[in-house]
Each structure stands twice: as C-alpha cells, then as structure tokens.
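Reopening this one. Same input as before:
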Amino acid sequence: MRKITLGIIGAGRIGKLHVENLKGLPQVKIKSISDILADSIRDWAADNGIQNVTNNYKDIVNDPEIDAIFICSPTDTHIEIIEEAVKAGKHIFCEKPISFNLGGTIQVLEWVRSSGVKFQTGFNRRFDHNMSRVKELIREGKAGEPHMLKVTSRDPAPPHKEYIKNSGGLFVDMAIHDFDIARFLMDSDVEEVYVQGAVLVDPVFAEFQDIDTAIITLKFENGALGVIHNSRQAHYYDQRVEFFGSAGSITIQNDNPNTAEVYTQNGAYRDNPLHFFLERYKEAYVKEVLSFIDAVVNDTPVPVDANDGYQAELIASAAAISLRERRPVRIEEVVSGLRQKV
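Same output, byte for byte:
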C-alpha cells in the first residue's frame, strides 16, 4: 500500500478534527503541523504522533517529503498558501470557502488546472449518510424529475462577535454549505438567486453589515426551483432536506442521539437532535478525508473539486447583491462583472 505524507496548516477546531480523523489511517503519515500559536499545540501534536510543529506554514509547503497539505487556516490566508503549494507540487485539501474574493478563487482554478495537482474543497455534507442517500435515490429516479428542493439549515446559537467580524457573512460562512448541497442534490448549477434577509437574533450582526436570518430562493439551470431557510439561532441544530419531483418526494429529518420517545399525560417528547456540526457530521468528516486520500493514493479525481468551491461562492456573491439591492440576481450577471474586472 502506498503511503502519503501530510502537512496540516492551521490547528484550530477544524484542523484538529482532521488530525483526529487522519492519524489512524494506515496509508497516511502526518509529519508536520503549522499554526501561528505553535507553542500552544506542541503537547497536543506530540500526543497525536506529529513530529514537527512550526509557526510558519512555508516549512510545510517547502518540505519535499510532504505529498499533500490540508489548509485549515483562516480564509483570508488561503490564496497565498494555495499559490505556494501548487508551485511546490503539493496536492491540496482546502476548507471552505476557497477565498473571500471570487477573483482569487478563479486564480486557484487556473493554477490547479495548469499544474495537475489535486484540489478538494471541504464540503463535508456531501458525504453525510443522509445526504448521500438522498442523492442515490434521486439518481435512481425514485422521485422522478426534479421540481423543487427545500433545504433547512439553522444553527443552535450564533457565533461570538470576533468570529462574526471575520466570517465573511452568513452567505459565505454558513449558507455556502447549503448552496453546495443544493447543486449536489439537483445535479445542476444555479441560474438565479433572490434573498430576503433580516437581523432578528442579535443586533451585533448589523454592526458588520451581516444578517442572521434568511430565506434564499434559487432557480436552477435545469428549470427546477429551490429554497433555503437559514437562521443563526434555532436553539437546536436543524438540518433537513426535501426533494420534490415528478414522481414523488424524498425527505430527511434531523439526526437524533437516540430514537427513544416518552409519552405521558403531560405530552410526548424525545431528545433534541445532535447538537452541532461536529456531532451531526462526524462520520461525513471522516468520509471526506478518506475520499481525498484515496484520490491522491490511486491518482483518481477528487469528488469535490475547486470548481465546486467556485460555484458555491458565485451563488453567495449573487445572494449578497440580491440582499443589498432587493432584487433577483442572475449568476451570469456576477460572472460578467468578473470578466469586466479582468
């Protein structure tokens, strides 16, 4: 079995999660990890068998023994790291979004296409057991031709102020997963976006020209329609999907820690759904890194490429324009605007 040597850039919550999921794989060796707070993670890194800890990501990019890197650092660092990694011939797994700038993401597409390195975007929800089952049933034609898709995506509680400040906003930080899953399930790019948004949870969002509540309608290139419901505060983690087609519908509900239900004279209840994304999508995170490792080891295409990241960012950009200008926005309008800037 061929083994690959990895470097991890960024040791925050998601970087540590990937380490936990990668360290036991027989075809993987995690050699190095970088973080600006390197000293604070040395003990943790040693406990996870990582030999080298550095505060300079260039040490990883320039290491000839490292075959591939995981970019788990803040989004505003991605473009610089990707450019250097591509030049160094490293395969790349990059957390979403690829960048806060569509022009930068287009550059990534060009770098990846010209270099031949593998690049996977971190849209883990495609690998969720529920989402992948819906996709399978749609492919089998169980519900017929697509007519409508409804995605409900609501967080249990809003993030803290400093996170909101640097998040890029609801469309890029949160709804971008929903944009990707919508394209994935409908097997179609989006043609038009229309948004109604509000600040109903916490006025802190307005301080950063952001919203915490949104209804996003989509028109797909295949003619079907979609709607996404987003909220930063549901008090539980709400992740549901309904696909409606010419022959019926397919739905998935929230995952619960158990299926026990209690019925008494005072009413009926069950435990809340799994609390947040780390619990809800635990298995999906494992499957997505396995898919990347498999693509590198066996020289096969990655299942979620740079274009998937770009398409989700296009939808997010159109959504932002729609919210600001209170009108439907065609994706082609965003693309044309990019061409004019070149």
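So the earlier flakiness isn't reproducible anymore. For the record, The chain has two domains: 4-117, 126-282+311-341.
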